[in-house]
Design goal:
The chain is α/β, with parallel strands linked by helices. Helices cover 40% and strands 13% of the residues. The model has no long low-confidence stretch (mean pLDDT 97).
Length: 267
């Protein structure tokens, strides 16, 4: 596994496992399978309503807590500073841990700065090793960093070959914030797996279109959290560090950039 060093020195795995659509015993089995494959970053959120099975899977795996990088996020019901503090404690209880490795504000809410004060307290108290935000566009990010006090370690956003969002990446890097992609496969908005350019490039390296899409992001400094419940695809998504796209590949894939969000969240 390769790691990125966040702005406070914390090492974050470059590739993680997204859990937004896994639930119940079947979901827990999928998480355990991901851990068997080698994933160590598990991304969850209060909004997903599955922190409990993430915590159960971590315990059931038998691996020491220090080997895991756990991410969770507060969302709109954490309406103020006090509620956010209580919800952080609840998330820790559900995850069966004393701390999370990354704690995020899920979206750019009007009271995001107030919620962030609770995250800063969690960071100070050792209940979070790093804190950050999610789904903040360029203007929202710019406003936030001017008032937040602690520069976000991560902004988790839409980023894929059709909208890599490298302009936002570049702005954030100047402040010290790492981009992480929650939608490297577009969440089904485009059939990336059938994309001719990605398949053509993949043939050169014996890789799938999905692997090429992920490699394009990580090679450009974007961390990824692909999602799958199928072991074979988990393994493929994890096996993207043994090849390097050349300049011609990067140019071909870069031409897929449509310059617009497929979700309409950042325009």
């Amino acid at each position: 596994m390769e790691y990125l060093t966040l702005n406070n020195g914390v090492a974050m795995p470059l590739i993680g496992f997204g859990t937004w659509d896994v639930r119940g015993e079947e979901g827990k089995r999928a998480i355990l399978t991901a851990l068997e494959v080698g994933y160590r970053l598990l991304d969850t959120a209060r909004m997903y309503e599955n922190e409990d099975i993430v915590g159960q899977a971590v315990r059931q795996s038998g691996l020491p807590r220090r080997e895991f990088f756990l991410t969770t996020k507060l969302y709109r019901p954490s309406t103020n500073y006090q509620k956010a503090k209580a919800d952080i404690e609840d998330s820790l209880q559900r995850l069966q841990t004393d701390y999370v490795d990354l704690l995020l504000v899920h979206e750019p809410y009007e009271n995001a700065l107030e919620l962030y004060e609770a995250l800063k307290d969690a960071l100070r108290d050792g209940k979070a090793r790093a804190i950050g935000i999610s789904n903040f566009n360029s203007a929202e990010y710019q406003r936030f960093v001017q008032h937040c006090g602690v520069i976000p370690a991560v902004n988790q956003v839409e980023s894929h070959v059709y909208y890599p969002h490298f302009d936002l990446r570049d702005k954030m890097h100047r402040y010290g914030t790492q981009m992480q992609s929650w939608a490297p496969f577009t969440e089904g908005r485009r059939n990336l797996f059938a994309e001719p350019v990605l398949n053509q490039v993949g043939k050169k390296y014996g890789k799938t279109a999905a692997q090429v899409a992920l490699r394009y992001l990580v090679q450009n400094g974007v961390a990824v959290i692909p999602k799958s419940v199928h072991r074979e695809r988990m393994e493929q998504n994890f096996a993207i560090l043994d090849f390097t796209l050349d300049r011609e590949d990067l140019a071909q894939i870069g031409a897929l950039n449509g310059g617009r969000s497929l979700f309409g969240w950042y325009d």
